[in-house]
Design a protein that fits this description.
2 domains, 5-stranded mixed sheet, 10 strands, binds zinc ion
Length: 287
């Protein structure tokens, strides 16, 4: 796509074809893709429709942005890294690639509705880090529907205890689900019993094509460990959200269009605000 086509698409998504000039209420505009502005045909007011979106304050051409989004949304079942983006696309620096990926993850994390899993679910916990004295441990809880839409859910939990597990189960599982988990993990069985959730003990009869939560969690751990020099706790959930997004949005075109829409409708100020949170680096346990 040319810069003009990308800009036109973003302006349409930004205003949903309901643009009216803030000065004179006129709706006829000229597009100036080279300066990323629109001009009111009536009063000549200049407006930068992207400046307060996640496409704002960026020197990356819009066409390259679209290529990055394409790369992210067409990479299901793997943790995509800034290194891949830097190597596969024509981007000035690793840092620029990292920032672009971080914004895309933010857009997904803040816009994609949180789902509640239904039916029969496989559930597991993976401890990924012990980080100093403040928290004993940090885990990823993984759950996948093994029938129907086969949707995935991955959530970072600090120091899983009765309270936050209860909260997690209430938020992420529909009523009347049936859960299958590793019979060796007695504490998980206890969580389920305490929360009055039905259980089944075996997944054997689901056959060879069955996408086990255990394999997904191992993949995620491998991706985190290999793709990132340092991973900070504050970015972990958005990395998981992006993985889940590409896993659950199996139609690549829909996923691609969704991310572009999320990016143009997310405020840069919200992103900046979240970036001020302190980083706490994790040392990921290989297992
Ligand atoms: Zn005007």
């Amino acid at each position: 796509m040319t810069e003009k086509e990308c800009f036109e698409k973003l302006v349409k998504l930004r205003y949903q074809e309901l643009f009216s000039c803030p000065v004179c209420r006129n709706s006829d505009i000229w597009l100036k893709p080279d300066r990323r502005i629109i001009i009111c045909k009536n009063c000549r007011k200049e407006i930068s429709p992207l400046s307060d979106s996640l496409f704002g304050r960026s020197h990356i051409p819009l066409g390259t942005w679209f290529d990055i989004i394409y790369l992210v949304t067409s990479s299901p079942d793997r943790v995509i890294t800034a290194k891949t983006i830097f190597e596969e696309l024509d981007i000035g620096s690793y840092r620029t690639a990292w920032e672009a990926l971080n914004k895309i993850r933010f857009a997904i994390s803040h816009n994609e509705p949180r789902i509640k899993l239904k039916g029969v679910i496989e559930f597991d916990e993976m401890v990924i880090s012990g980080i100093g004295s403040e928290y004993h441990k940090l885990s990823i809880l993984g759950a996948i529907e093994i029938e129907g839409e086969k949707r995935l859910c991955l959530e970072m939990i600090k120091n899983p205890d009765e309270m936050n597990i209860k909260d997690y189960l209430r938020k992420r599982f529909s009523r009347k689900v049936t859960v299958i988990t590793d019979p060796d993990k007695l504490y998980i069985l206890n969580w389920l019993v305490l929360n009055r959730i039905n259980q089944k003990s075996s997944i054997k009869h689901y056959g060879a094509n069955f996408m086990s939560i255990h394999i997904i969690l191992q993949d995620v751990r491998y991706g985190l460990k290999n793709g990132h020099h340092n991973i900070s706790e504050k970015y972990l959930q958005s990395i998981l959200d992006e993985y889940v997004f590409t896993f659950n949005n199996k139609d690549r075109n829909i996923a691609y269009e969704k991310v572009i829409k999320y990016m143009v409708n997310t405020k840069m100020s919200e992103y900046k605000k979240s970036e001020t949170k302190k980083r706490r680096f994790l040392s990921i346990i290989l297992g």
